[in-house]
Description:
The complex is a heterodimer.
Chain A: H1 2-15, H2 18-21, H3 29-41, H4 54-67, H5 74-87, H6 104-117, H7 120-124, H8 128-138, H9 155-167, H10 173-176, H11 179-184, H12 203-215, H13 224-234, E1 246-247, E2 252-253, E3 256-261, E4 280-284, H14 311-323, H15 326-332, H16 366-369, H17 390-396, H18 407-418
Antiparallel strand pairs in A: 1-2, 3-4
Chain B: H1 2-12, H2 16-19, H3 44-52, H4 101-107, H5 109-122, H6 146-159, H7 163-176, H8 181-194, H9 199-212, H10 217-230, H11 236-246, H12 251-263, H13 270-287, H14 292-301, H15 306-311, H16 313-324, H17 330-341, H18 348-356, H19 368-379, H20 384-392
Amino acid sequence: MVQNHVFRIYDLVFRLPPHAQSVNFELRRDNHIEYLTKSLKQLGPSFTVLDANRPWLCYWIIHSIALLGDCLDDKLEYGIVDFLQRCQDPNGGYGGGPGQMPHLATTYAAVNALITVGGQRSLSSIDRKKLYAFLLRMKDASGGFRMHDGGEVDVRACYTAISVASVLNILDDRLIQSVGDYILSCQTHEGGIAGEPGSEAHGGYTFCGLAAMVLINEVNRLDLPGLININYYDSIILGGRLDWHYVRSRKQIWRYCISFKLYSVGAASPNYRLALGCELAIFYVIELGGIQARVECGFQGRTNKLVDGCYSFWQGGVAAIIQRLHLLVNEQLGLPNTFKYDCGTESDNDSSDSGGEPYSDGEASPENDIRQPMQEGKSNASAAIGVNDDGYKFIKGPIGMTPLFNSMALQQYILLCSQGLSKGKSNLLWSSDY
Amino acid sequence: RESLTAGLASRLGPGVFLGGFCGWFWNNGHNMWGCVHFTCRKSLATQVDMNRGVEEERERIPMSQRPEWADIRPVPQDDGPNPVVPITPMSSAKPWITSEPYTWRMNDPHAHFNSLKKSFFSIQGITLFLAVNVKTIGSSVDAYKAEVWQFRRLILDALNVDLHEELHFVDQITKDNSKNYQIWHHRRWVAEKLGTQIASKELEFTREIFSQDAKNYHAWSHRQWVLQALGGWENELAYCDELLEDDIFNNSAWNQRYFVVTRSPLLGGLEVMRDSEVAYAIKAILAKPENESPWRYLRGLYKNNVNSLVNDPRVASVCLDVLLDKRDCVHALNMVLDLLSHHHQPSNELKDAVDAVSPDPKPSDSNFAERVCSILQLVDPIRASYWRWRKTSMPAQD
Lengths: 434, 398
């Protein structure tokens, strides 16, 4: 059903004369900004199920606005900082709403939202000391982290904890200890990374695992060629297929509303001190009018499963990281360690300030330091102060290879299928019935 | 105060919980302790919650109209004067839902929950909190709220209730919210407490979930946890067989197979199982060569032992078979590439078969490995960038 609709869209558009086609491939920037700003001020009843995730809503909206190159007015910024401050727990961390128990995911969202807003007031509102204590409390004996007090341990928690600690400059040995071991144990026989040891390789968790390993400087421990292989296989858009979940048992239909993925369009702005420079705004639309549906929080992205717009981020994000790991990848493949930048037709020039500069053989540079080969199997036990800069240095590092996926096809898919074929109005929603 | 509540608690005991029980509510904020007595048999509200589940949320009797909650002062979430992303429910015929944010918040069950929470956590060292309507908490739209479940666990611990009931209660909610992290985590917590006796029930339950969605990620993680923590490995490989017979493309089942083969204490481990599993994978490949899963499974069987993969004649042979058949050959070519990158010497037969599937009548690469990459760029154009990169990252061929 969904696939047919997608094929129909493609069919329709590509039947148009060329000059009429192009309008469908434009990112309707102004429409999106309007929609986002409106959403920041008011969200409809369909978002009730996200009442414990409001920092996420803030983050998705704010970051999307930022990536679109716009900014917020002072009053909104003030409101955001105030609101997130209310979500901050007195003992550290951020909950899903004012007074709610702190949770690593909402902490990640809140911190990144505040960083995106930027400025003295916003940044100083984050109680780093308490947050550190919170992260330490979430640390589990396995080396991983719990999502919340008494909560589940998985790779998402590792990433959100490490990422937040890194960007706030509070990452240290105690937090890092054994995380690498845990994440490594989650890399499956397929090459991707699972949520927990033994589970299936999954795009979302692969991103989390890979990014976390980069931040703690242990990415060399992963089987990178294996990870690349499964990732590029699974990230491919084949003529546009959209995943959705049909809960047969109760005659209820999930509907995704996936807004747009800005990776290949806006790319990572170098102003962000984030582990990865791109985010995806995901809005879940719940069917109205009598059928109450539920939020689908599952990220699909596994072998023989359908493609989903949100994987544009997870897989695309992995692609962005991989591009900067060329030296390590070559080493693991047993190839000579020469830097080779293949300009190709799809170079990702916007992603980094220093993209594209070739290095001669063996030339050392500050950016290359973090990727120096490490002893196999040994984790970096002496995480000095420098470890907090690893993430930033990494994304500033040179890109060693082109994106290994078809970036244009991805953009097409997103613009056609997620942006929709509306006639000029702001429409990020899948308006048909699925 | 301490001794009083402890005394009352011991008098009541856990058995009272199910039939009907009383709760004590200590209002710490006013510096006096209040005793709130309310009954909770299977009240209408509870019944509504339990039987209807999340999707009937809008049919619920509003909290303000439930006598057993009458003495609890709701503490609505305080968004502040300039909230962002405020969620306002729509106006509808349901009296508790209004478009007025404050009224909604007052009637939101979470407001009552906040009240309980405040008192519970503010009691220093006194954990005995005999709550009513524990069944309500966690059964409604709060199902996605981590703190509600966490609080519920604290109460369940304090009350020392029979967790079989709890598991049964969670069953329906899980089925209705099968992709909710909180519920599966809660389930795991309950199962862990119940121990090995519950293993077969949990395996049965996940089997039920899979009958609706054979790839539910949470259910698979739960099942794996059950096997490792509580046991029940005996029929697991057979169950994988069953699922794969049903859908040979089910990668979750392939993953589970790998899990069983490598970790089951009953099977002897990967080394012992490898041979028969290779045969199994090859059979699946020949049935549907376009199915990526068995190819990955095959590679996985030789993890950390790649030379054995290269030297196992069955591997090159299955590639050859698929190519000769001229069926979907992308995965076969990918495997050939992997073999070549580990210095496999291809037979002439294999080389001919590869060339035969090339859309380009005059391939220009003299190097066989590079030729394979070029062919892949043509037969699998969407991944052309990837195959191009593979070409540049082939080790030197002998």
